[in-house]
Design brief:
The complex is a heterodimer. By secondary structure, chain A is mainly β. Chain A has no helices and twelve strands. In chain B, strands 2, 4, 5, 6, 9, 10 and 11 form a seven-stranded mixed beta sheet that branches. In chain B, strands 1-3-8-7 form a four-stranded antiparallel beta sheet, with no helix packed on it. Chain B starts with a strand and ends with a strand. The chains are: A mainly beta, B mainly beta.
């Protein structure tokens, strides 16, 4: 079963507008971490934002904010005032404990964002 | 502070050969994870090391192995290469292991198997 679902393979947004990238997850672990990463065409993964499952407030990092709806198991990334440099692949990820011990990070399939001038 | 470095950046091998990829984590980071990224399968977890011990392993065949040294540098090895092993191999480091583990990724090693 898919643990992380990103339903938007591709998204277009006009420069300076806000955009929301969807992410839903599935876990039975009450304690987990949610992450968003950006991957430009160069290939390097860039950490954007983190949300802990017990965090009461939505995480924010500059122009990035995470719309965390725990009951719906949703962790959408909101990018405000899009810039041309935001064009990239965006991955939602979840880190949870494994039954066999240790932790594992699971990534979604990604959403490719195109920012139009 | 220097970021995560991976060597080599690009590699071309032929089927049946073996390859060793190297990852140097951010100074002070003790956890190193490896991921394989392909267009078809996306990002898949290979293994995680913390303080020289493998803490976790993904669903990959035994041809994929790794290790971590006392200075936290890590290597992964793929033996008897197959065409399907062509991928971007990403290494990520973090200060510790845990649920809220922010991972910092290196630029990756792009492996092509002919």
């Amino acid at each position: 079963a898919q643990k992380i679902t990103q339903t938007q393979p591709g998204m277009f947004v006009q420069e300076k507008e806000a955009v929301t990238l969807d992410c839903t997850y599935d876990t039975s672990d009450p304690s987990y971490g949610l992450f968003w990463y950006k991957q430009p065409s160069s290939g390097e993964m860039i950490f954007l934002i983190y949300q802990g499952s017990y965090d009461q407030q939505n995480a924010t990092e500059g122009r990035y904010s995470l719309n965390f709806q725990k009951a719906r198991k949703s962790a959408n990334l909101v990018i405000s005032a899009s810039q041309l440099g935001d064009s990239a692949m965006y991955f939602c990820a979840m880190r949870e404990a494994r039954d066999t011990g240790g932790f594992k990070t699971i990534f979604g399939a990604g959403t490719r964002l195109f920012v139009k001038a | 502070k220097a970021g995560v470095t991976q060597t080599p950046r690009y590699l071309i091998k032929t089927r049946g050969q073996q390859v060793t990829l190297s990852c140097s984590p951010i100074s002070g980071h003790r956890s190193v994870s490896w991921y394989q990224q392909t267009p078809g399968q996306g990002l898949q977890f290979l293994f995680e090391y913390f303080s020289e011990t493998q803490r976790n392993k993904g669903n990959f065949p035994g041809r994929f192995s790794g290790r971590q040294f006392s200075n936290s540098r890590s290597e992964m090895n793929v033996s008897t290469l197959e065409l399907g092993d062509s991928a971007l191999y990403l290494c990520a480091s973090s200060f510790r292991t845990g649920r809220n583990n922010e991972q910092f990724f290196g630029p990756g090693t792009r492996l092509t198997v002919l």
